[in-house]
Design goal:
Layout: E1 2-5, E2 8-11, E3 16-22, E4 32-37, E5 44-49, E6 56-58, E7 66-71, E8 76-81, E9 90-97, E10 112-113, E11 119-124
Parallel strand pairs: 2-11
Antiparallel strand pairs: 1-3, 3-8, 4-5, 4-9, 5-6, 7-8, 9-10, 9-11
């Protein structure tokens, strides 16, 4: 599984840094995706990064506000979430790609595995 952490409660306009780390395996060589799920809504992709970190992709509603990065030496992937809006409130999850890809598709949940527990992000207006 992958463990997401770093969530919390912030005011609108605030920022958080989410982290994603594996439980007992190496993330290098695989793309990592970040996803979120608000109450009563389906889980949706937010962003992804390929194994080297040279390719990233974002959903339109977070582009310019969220930044995904990875530190393979620390076996961790990050999601900087800035200028948060009330509609960003959700449980955020990370997952590892099923295979080894040169790119990644944040919008294709079936490309990912090793889903773990998420981290709650709450945004107060």
């Amino acid at each position: 599984q992958l463990q997401a952490s770093g969530g919390g409660t912030v005011q609108a306009g605030g920022s958080l840094r989410l982290s994603c780390a594996p439980l007992g395996f190496d993330l290098s060589g695989y793309a990592i995706g970040w996803f979120r799920q608000a109450p009563g809504r389906e889980r949706k992709g937010v962003s992804c990064i390929n194994s080297s970190g040279g390719y990233t992709s974002y959903a339109d509603d977070v582009k310019g506000r969220f930044t995904i990065s990875r530190d393979n030496a620390k076996n961790t992937v990050y999601l900087e979430v800035n200028n948060l809006r009330p509609e960003d409130a959700a449980v955020y999850y990370c997952a590892r790609s099923v295979g080894v890809y040169s790119r990644c598709r944040y919008y294709s949940l079936e490309d990912y595995t090793y889903w773990g527990q998420g981290t709650q992000v709450t945004v107060s207006s």
